[in-house]
Amino acid sequence: MDEATNSEAIYYQISFFSKEKRFENIPDSVVNVPGSSTPTNLNLLLNNSIRSLDDDWKDLSFDFLIGDLLLRTSLAEFAEDHSLTTESIVQIECLLREPAPEPESDLITSDWVADVKAFNNLLCVATYDGKLSIWTLDGKLLFTGDLDNDPMKCIDVFQHDKTNYAIVGGQNQTLVLCKLTVTKKLADATPLRIFRGHERSVECVAANKDGSRIVSGSFDNCLKLWNSENDEENSITLDNAKKAKPDFNKLPTQTPIVTLASHREAIVGVKWNPLSEVQAVTVSWDHSMIVWDLELAGPVKTLTSNKSFTSLSINPITGQILTGSVDPTVRLWDIRSQEGSMVKQSFLGHTGSFDNLVKMWDIRSPKTPLYDLTGHKDRILAVDWSMPEVIASGGVDCTIKTYRHK
Question: Which of 165, 342, 359, 399 is the most buried (most CB within 10 A)?
């Protein structure tokens, strides 16, 4: 008897329910369904059941939650993975399905996209030809200007004292702080200061919540803390690349407040800890993640992995951390955990770190992504979801793709 026949022969008792008031009419009667039932089959069953009680019902697409996990396979496969039995009733929570993000813009850039940040319905982009550019979400280029001949590698956009700024790090070992001025039709980036202190390429940068402090990581294995307070008296204006490239040697030079060295290899990701205004988190090629206390100027926690890290992102509410590595696995960490594994979930689905796909995940579905966002023709180097309704990505195909999330 093959696997399909086995799952057909096994039946489970299930009962639907919803915690949402608008779906309180979902029938909660117990029904028997074959183990081969998938979310598609359950959607058909659920909509037919509701329609039998409500003639005006319009079919909807639901996701199904068993315990705290989304059902993305057949019931039989789920039962085998999570030790469900046919003897008890399986309570299935019904959630309105998250709509797929819709492709919106396809922007052609001058070189590889190293990093992209969305802010105020605009995109701020750093590229490998040393340029900083500002785009509207619908694809209009408002500004582009040269910051260096070497590649720009990272960017963050922040607000301080009601003024918008961009901090851009590059392969030339420096960071440039720019004041952003945006109108409906034009944008400008005015370089204010140049941050010197790193000894190799700057790979990552992040400003804190109020924009008063900046942290950066580099191939020199060091984390540096900077003061963002600006002095515009000696600043120069970069005017839409129509003028000759400015002399950055004339910019005021900023030196770091403190330099922290515990990593043994390149720091490739840095974020501020949203649960502590004096902490930052870094990941490195040396397989380690370090939580730093910037007031004490040292590490307070070090976590290790069996793979080199490539990136990280932190949930601004819970402080949980997502990391990318050189293997095809995205990992969810909880640095507050006092016992057990710090890795709370592993998301499996990428065919490789450079598979040309952006994947949208739900933490309740670790084995199957919600959606694949396609369009890129080569490696993706940057993904940003700073604006809740817009996902932006860029990479080696010299394009920025945006997807609208409803």
Answer: 165
The burial of 350, by beta-carbon neighbours within 10 Å (0-12 exposed, 13-18 middle, 19 or more buried), is given as middle
3-state secondary structure of 81: helix
Measured CA to CA, the distance from residue 316 to residue 328 in angstroms comes to 25
Burial string for 101-114 (b: 16+ CB within 10 Å, else e) reads beebbebebbebbb
For the domain 102-261+349-404, what is the CATH superfamily, name and number? YVTN repeat-like/Quinoprotein amine dehydrogenase (2.130.10.10)
pLDDT at 6: 56
The C-alpha atoms of residue 364 and residue 304 are separated, in whole angstroms, by 24
pTM of the model: 0.85
Domain ranges of the chain: 3-96, 102-261+349-404
Amino acid at 185: K
Strands in 163-170's sheet, in edge-to-edge order, are: 152-160, 163-170, 175-182, 187-195, 253-254
Question: How far does CA 275 lie from the centroid of its chain?
Answer: 18
Cite the DSSP H helix spans in 64-135: 75-82
Expressed in percent and rounded to 5, the helix, strand and coil fractions of the chain are 10, 45, 45
> In the CATH scheme, what is the code of domain 3-96?
3.10.20.90
Give pLDDT tens digits for 140-152: 999 999 999 999 9
